[in-house]
Amino acid sequence: MNINYKNLLGLFLILSIISCKQEEKDVSEVDVEKNSEELNNYFEEQFQEEVDESPMLQTRLGIKKDYGQWDDFSTEKYAEDLNQAKKRLDYIDDINPENLNEEVRLSYQLYRQQLENEIEDYNYRFYSYPVNQMFGYHSQLPAFLINMHSIDSISDAEAYISRLRGFPEAFNDIIEGLKVREQNQIMPPKFVFDKVLDDSRNIITGRPFEKSAEASTLLEDFKAKVEALNLSEEEERQLIADAETALVEQVKPAYTNLMDFLANQQQRATYEAGVWKFPKGEEFYNNALKRTTTTDLTAEEIHEIGLNEVARIHREMEEIKNEVGFEGSLQDFFNFMRNDEQFYYEDTAEGREKYLADAKEIIDQMRDRLPDLFLTLPEAEIVVKAVEPFREKSAGKAFYQQPAMDGSRPGTFYANLYDIKAMPTYQLEALAYHEGIPGHHMQIAIAQELEEVPNFRKFSFYTAYVEGWGLYSELLPKEIGFYEDPYSDFGRLAMELWRAVRLVVDTGIHAKKWTREEGIDFYVQNTPNAESDAVKMVERHIVMPGQATAYKIGMNKILELRENAKSQLGENFDIRKFHDVVLLDGSIPLNILEQKVDEWIAKNKN
What we know:
Layout: H1 5-53, H2 55-60, H3 76-93, H4 102-121, H5 137-147, H6 154-165, H7 167-183, H8 190-203, H9 217-227, H10 233-266, H11 281-293, H12 299-323, H13 330-339, H14 349-369, E1 382-386, H15 389-392, E2 398-401, E3 411-415, H16 425-435, H17 440-449, H18 455-458, H19 463-475, H20 486-511, H21 516-526, H22 531-543, H23 550-569, H24 575-583, H25 590-604
Parallel strand pairs: 1-3
Antiparallel strand pairs: 2-3
Protein name: DUF885 domain-containing protein
InterPro entries: DUF885
Pfam families: DUF885
């Protein structure tokens, strides 16, 4: 036998390489899990650093470590956060995402994007209104004490008093930030000041700030919580006396100082509404739209999408108008829906209680149908509450507050019943679905309860995803037989129309130099909502540039992805599994959501 040793040697080398490759592959699989575990540990360490730096986040998480303190509101904190973000990005830069498992690779992608955005956004750190009628510190801090600071012991009560004593330092830092913004030509328009000043006065009205039969909002809250502890009469009396002292000696001077500053600044404010008035305002707005929508859509493109959606929804409303036998134009129908008493609750305490009861009933009915649409359900409960009197005059129409991580506090759907005419019966069904079930409560509670997802992802908030899901959740019940009353279905369309108009008005104000009055007029002419609704919404656009564009852009993307999945999968499409794909990674940007859905389609194709 002739043996070709050259070929034999070649074969030996090939086999050796295959063997080595196999060994490398086996080692690599082990390394992938090790690398993934190490990176997850890093994510958790960094999240715990965030928690340790934020007493308010601790409270939201049910942790009572720094229970008597506020967060750092100083302008120096921006630079500290920037340096921290750069250090974290340096660490991430040394990691090869190909050496991670699929789930951790997604976390890497999200974490890196967050850091890059945070570093880029440092350029616009003063492009905001920290004190405004929607969510300013003047109302946020009292709301935080009322809604977040529970009192289960004497030490908890003392921590509440400590936070009351901390108002002057917190407000001084906030005022310094407002001064820096004014130096950078960043100042809210005139209308904001009157609303903020009114809300601030409300906080320091009543006992012990003045002789009154009514206790102030904070004193009433503190007393109720302390009285529920069943302490001795002397212990209870002392705690309440200490709180009253802190309210008079620290809280009132803090608010007086803030109000004096705002009243002075108001004299220099203008009526210009859009951020185009800022230095580099156009660049800031483009960045705001990018962050809000997680897309590259331009202001002009968003404006045009809005106009097209308004026209489509108007056509669908015409169909309902004809269905109920209304004779007249769509504008006539809008006026009918605005003014006919059958569509409104009584402007009484009983009427407001009925509103809350009806909202709860709608949520309960939808809860029974969730298994038809979802495989994964939240464990956290949800309650319905009215917005507290001290902030109802300027707060939004409705909003959701997430449950505590430890289950000690349920999720809350807040309805603003200050102006009952702004809360018509025909919109209640869609509103309850959006804020409650299957909307924000499903989405946010499920995200918090995910076990394999790092904590930083459970608390990430991409507005287009979160609010896009909320608006999608208004449509979803219709597809399984809800909205039996055509007027309620009109209400659903009215809610969607409202979000479509937002695309037009937000870009109109901030990119096309519309005035506040032009924005209000567009809402009034194109929607059935009360004028007070239109005023609040336009004023929200003004102080939260870009934010309101997220709802419709997000909804459109979820529907687009769903229709693509249906088309590609045919009989293999299962809406429950689709919703798992959308929900079980927590809040993510729309481009990554699209990537996840595409991967799911590819895996489930015949």
